[in-house]
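Progress against Task 2.4 (sequence-to-structure conversion) is shown through the following example record, which the project officer requested during the mid-term review.
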Amino acid sequence: MSTDAHPLGLASGRVIIMPYDPRWVVEFQNAERELRLALGSAALAVHHVGSTAVPGLCAKPVLDLLVSVPDLAASLQFVSKLEAIDYEFRPHEDISDRHFFRRRRGAKRTHHLSLAEPTSHFHKATLAFRDALRQDPAKAREYAELKLMLARRFPGDREKYLEGKTAFVARVLREPGLEHLPDRTIPACGDDTCSLK
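Structure tokens generated for the chain above:
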């Protein structure tokens, strides 16, 4: 569980890894329903991504969501609809093939939302990494051990924590069966913006 009764919530700049919480699935279902109501048929799909989407995997208590949209530029028209349901648009980031939003509960981040086209590198890499961990328990355990070690070493340095995971993520995305991904093996990650966590 997270540091309080709510299963989601992490202060900015902190790295806290929690044991898997089955309530994350319910939180995703609630968020998916809310996003489908807000975006209608413009949301081609709503995916639960990141570590909270991998059964049994420890994670930072922040729910990662990926909404597939037909046209990234046109999806800017959804900013006001997403802001109406408390997602804050974060337009200045390093990942060019997605739009990023976050949701907070008080001072804590609870949701990270990305809009991306299904053919984009970000979309493909994010789903490929999640699926690789879901399909291979040994790989998920290795990732969990790495994340726990990095969180102990860098509890207040999110950048160092992310840097420490880069080689693992890149290795997973270069494995057989993922050759369809372009050379850019992993999306760049900003302060609040990486779904491959």
